[in-house]
Design brief:
mainly alpha, 3 helices, 0% strand, globular
């Protein structure tokens, strides 16, 4: 994985955190799975997605 890919994955995680803060009580767009996106980007960054979701207190409603 290149540094550019890791930076992009970090940006996407940041955007996902903002999305969660603003839209967590609203229905998601069809076909969009927030937690799958978190898992994908954490994988690129070689981070444990479960620890990430625990740390940022991300919960499925």
């Amino acid at each position: 994985m290149t540094d550019a890919n890791k930076v992009q994955a970090f940006k996407e995680l940041h955007d996902l955190l903002l999305y969660y803060a603003e839209h967590r009580d609203l229905p998601a767009e069809e076909g969009f799975n927030f937690f799958d996106e978190v898992k994908k980007n954490c994988s690129i960054l070689e981070m444990d997605h479960k620890e990430f979701t625990r740390t940022f207190q991300l919960k499925q409603l």
